[in-house]
Amino acid sequence: MLRLTSVHDLMIPTTAANLCSELGDLSDKAASLLKESQSNGDRAKRAAAIRFYRSVGSVAVKVRQMLNDIAVAPMEKALRGDMLDESEFRLLYGVGVLPDYSLRIGSHWLTPYDVYRLLWYEDTESGIKGIIDVNRVRRTKAVSEDGKMRARTGIPFSMTPVRLSKVRMSKLRPEQALFFRQFCPFVFEHFKA
């Protein structure tokens, strides 16, 4: 699993990169229209081609900036180990930066964000916060109803993993304690009393 240490390690998501690529193609078409209008001597076509070329370039720059602005704050928060709100989680999960945590504990009845919330741990006294690292206890194969392996694309990374031996039962939120006790006793037994 890749562990990012800086927001700059995250590249523009694939869909955004494709959008920027398409805008680049439009820009190339605008440039060819500009050349064609110059050779024909048609001033009206040339002026229109120049406006089109400039507007496509401007849109491409704005799209890149917008995507960076949207993704930087949640990435910084995740890299610090802070808990993400649902919209921040959905953004990073949707572009494939965060893994599907439900696959790690075999809880397919919960939403990915609910599982993330259950795995996120904070102990202010010890200065520990992050995702409880359940990978060391049990590795489950994620198989969907049709028998095929489920996989996420993108760049999953580990957000400040918290070792099981560092988790104190007294610092778990009530819903976490109930969840681990009932549904993940194999994890719960590794927590400190």
Structural class: mainly alpha
Pattern of helices and strands: HHHHHEEEHH
Share of helical residues: 40-55%
Number of structurally distinct domains? 2
Share in β-strands: 5-15%
User: What is the arithmetic mean of pLDDT?
Assistant: 74
Radius of gyration: 24 Å
Q: What is the tally of beta strands?
A: 3
Please give the largest β-sheet: 3 strands, mixed
Shape type: rod-shaped
Looking across the biggest beta sheet, what order are the strands in? 1-2-3
Low-confidence stretches: 1-12, 138-158
Number of helices: 7
Q: How far apart are the termini? A: 30 Å
Looking at how many chains there are and whether they match, the oligomeric state comes to: single chain
Could you characterize what this model shows?
- With 193 residues, the chain is mainly alpha-helical.
- It has 2 domains: 7-80; 97-188, no CATH class.
- Helix content is 52%, strand content 6%.
- It has helices at 14-40, 43-80, 86-94, 101-105, 112-119, 174-183, 185-188, and strands at residues 120-123, 128-132, 161-162.
- It has a 3-stranded mixed beta sheet.
- A hairpin with a 4-residue loop joins strand 1 (120-123) and strand 2 (128-132).
- The radius of gyration is 24 Å and the shape is rod-shaped.
